[in-house]
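Box 3.1 — From sequence to structure: PUA domain-containing protein
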Amino acid sequence: TLRRSSGGRPRQVIVGDVDDTPGSSEGARLVSYGTDGRFTLGVAGGRRIQAAFAAPRHRVVVGEESEPFVRDGRNAFAKFVSAADDGIRPGDEVLVVDDDDALFAVGRAELSGAEAEAFASGAAVSVRNGVASEDDANAGE
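Predicted structure (token representation):
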């Protein structure tokens, strides 16, 4: 479903049952459109990109020591990056994953793929949404 602004401009693409009430959070957000014409990924959109493209496309791989922080929505720092797609440019939407391609978060690349691997300091990915761990999701059952 495509949600539009009051002026008719596309704002979000939502999958699932959607309540058209403004501010409703039903359904899963695939992408939102920014005023600059670029889109921002939601977790559901990240999962679709992950399924559509084989690793390492659109991915930044981080070590397990940063997993809890990235899943919590904190930025992924270059010192923890073990691999990254060479096609990533600063400003691109990327997936933050581990060596087994488990999705930790989606966000905006602050560095190119090569820089993220080479640099020892600084934020590599500005995380927009962290993905709750499978253990946390199963704890409520």
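Summary of the box: The helical segments are 43-52, 67-71, 113-118, 134-139.
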